[in-house]
Write a structure and sequence with these properties.
The complex is a heterodimer of chains A (about 140) and B (about 90). Chain A is built from five helices and no strands. Chain A has about 140 residues and is an all-alpha fold. Chain A has one domain. In chain A, helix 1 runs antiparallel to helix 2 (about 40-60), helix 1 runs antiparallel to helix 5 and helix 4 (about 80-110) packs antiparallel against helix 5 (about 120-140). Chain A is globular and about 50 Å long. Chain A starts with 6 loop residues before the first helix and ends with a helix. With about 90 residues, chain B is mainly α. In chain B, helix 2 crosses helix 3 (about 30-40). Classes of the chains: A mainly alpha (about 140), B mainly alpha (about 90). The interface of A and B includes residues 77, 79, 80 and 143 of A.
């Protein structure tokens, strides 16, 4: 069963995509702050990013969701407009929760003199914000 | 306001006319996956879309869509046979 028709396969792909990015952040920041060997840190980072890239291509590109999410509204039919509107609504709420959690964590860490995050985290968050609506569509829709 | 399920005859009318979902989708101006959602009653069309479907099949909207489960077309046209028809 191909990904366009299998909600289960798409959900697995979405979980793998976000989990690999979360793992990348854990490896990166643990490596930096705990002083891991550069080769170990680089290997971990590359492997997790490769998994994230592969799952992104599988879930978003091969299913056409990337195209759906970037199409002009004039090219969408009424059902697709409704689906993307719902996905955007859920994406904004989800992203707000993620951002608040990170800000809260950083505030607590900062109060102990340990500001944890550098530019890498915002880059990952930009990616998350960009693919979240399409990920929600991949998660919820029967057929994409 | 709760959205009600709309039953329809789109699938059978499409097959009677030898149309694929892509053919029908092009005729009514939607993506072919939307035709699938319509046929499975998983999406309720707007009034405009319902009229376009009606025009394609040449039937009144109420013969294509219903808020109640639809009787088979053969039953509507010829009865059940219990009424003593031809």
């Amino acid at each position: 069963m191909d990904m366009r028709n299998s909600k289960l396969q798409r959900r697995i792909g979405v979980v793998v995509n976000f989990a690999s990015l979360a793992l990348f952040l854990v490896i990166y920041y643990s490596g930096i702050h705990l002083g891991w060997r550069p080769l170990l840190l680089a290997t971990g980072a590359i492997v997790t990013l490769a998994i994230a890239a592969a799952s992104f291509l599988t879930v978003h590109v091969s299913t056409g969701l990337w195209k759906l999410g970037h199409s002009h509204i004039d090219k969408l039919d009424e059902r697709q407009i409704q689906v993307t509107h719902e996905a955007l609504r859920h994406a904004y709420a989800t992203f707000t929760v993620i951002a608040l959690a990170i800000i809260g964590f950083n505030a607590v860490a900062g109060s102990h003199g340990h500001y944890v995050f550098d530019v890498v985290l915002p880059v990952i968050l930009v990616y998350v914000a960009h693919v979240l609506p399409a990920s929600i569509i991949a998660w919820r829709e029967k057929v994409v | 306001m709760e959205t009600r399920k709309l039953y329809n005859r789109i699938s059978i009318l499409r097959l009677e006319r030898g149309l694929s979902r892509k053919d029908l989708a092009e005729m009514i101006g939607v993506n072919y996956q939307t035709v699938g959602y319509l046929e499975r009653s998983e999406y309720n069309p707007s009034l405009d879309l319902a009229f376009r479907i009606s025009e394609v099949f040449g039937l009144p909207i109420e013969k294509i869509f219903s808020t109640q489960p639809l009787r088979p077309l053969s039953e509507e046209l010829f009865g059940t046979g219990d009424e003593g028809g031809d």
